[in-house]
Amino acid sequence: MDGHAIELELPVENTTLSQYKVSLQGTLGESLQKKMIHGWQVIGQRKNDKKEYGAALLYLNDYKFSDKWSMMNMFGFRRTAFNKNGEFIGLANNSLFYSHSRRFSLGIELNSELTERSYQYRLTPQIQYAFSKNSVIQFGGGPSQLNEEKRTEWLVTSRLVHDF
């Protein structure tokens, strides 16, 4: 599907599969001499501990400043659950990347959630290594308040991405 993707995400916390996430995304086009591309993403999720379903809708924008520097921004909202306890949360994800080489890059990512009553965030410096043309592994860690207690936790994250 050229210009479209399907993504399956299986978040694990400690040793427990905490959620199932399925995403659909597509491009809306390119501009600025192909330095900018933008698109959309729809995410459906199931929280295993609460047996609740939620969804998010995002606008995606990627801009390449140079051969070395780029940024990725996502803006939208999430419905936390499709029941009486569900609420709408504003979302922003802003990332800045430096490509050291064809295989190795560094980045920093700020995930933000905004409700009527609060602002929460996760700040994640990260390292990415492309070990093949289609496969990337990512490691990061940093402070997060994206939890129900709204207290600062220190997280370590990893992500394996493979394009088929």
Written overview of the protein:
This protein is mainly β. The chain has a single domain (4-162), classed as Porin. Helices cover 0% and strands 70% of the residues. It has no helices and twelve strands. The chain has strands at residues 4-9, 12-13, 16-17, 19-31, 36-47, 52-64, 69-79, 88-99, 104-114, 119-130, 135-144, 153-162. The strands form two sheets. It has a ten-stranded antiparallel β-sheet with strand order 1-4-5-6-7-8-9-10-11-12, with no helix packed on it. It has a two-stranded antiparallel ribbon with strand order 2-3. It is globular. The model has no long low-confidence stretch (mean pLDDT 91).
Features:
10-stranded antiparallel beta sheet, 12 strands, two-stranded antiparallel ribbon, 164 residues, mainly beta, globular, Porin, single chain
Tell me the layout of helices and strands.
Layout: E1 4-9, E2 12-13, E3 16-17, E4 19-31, E5 36-47, E6 52-64, E7 69-79, E8 88-99, E9 104-114, E10 119-130, E11 135-144, E12 153-162
Antiparallel strand pairs: 1-4, 2-3, 4-5, 5-6, 6-7, 7-8, 8-9, 9-10, 10-11, 11-12
Quick recap:
With 164 residues, this protein is mostly beta strands. The chain has strands at 4-9, 12-13, 16-17, 19-31, 36-47, 52-64, 69-79, 88-99, 104-114, 119-130, 135-144, 153-162.
User: Helix segment count?
Assistant: 0
Kindly give the count of domains: 1
Give the N-to-C terminal Cα separation. Answer: 11 Å
CA gyration radius, whole angstroms: 16 Å
Helix % is under 10%
- Give a count of the beta strands, DSSP E runs of length 2 or more: 12
Please give the largest β-sheet: 10 strands, antiparallel
- Decide which structural class fits the backbone: mainly beta
SSE arrangement, N to C: EEEEEEEEEEEE
- Please tell me the CATH architecture by its name: Beta Barrel
Beta-strand percent range: over 45%
CATH class: Mainly Beta
Uncertain spans: none
Looking at the structure, what is the overall shape? globular
CATH topology: Porin
Task: For the largest sheet, list the strands in their spatial order.
Answer: 1-4-5-6-7-8-9-10-11-12
Mean pLDDT across all amino acids = 91
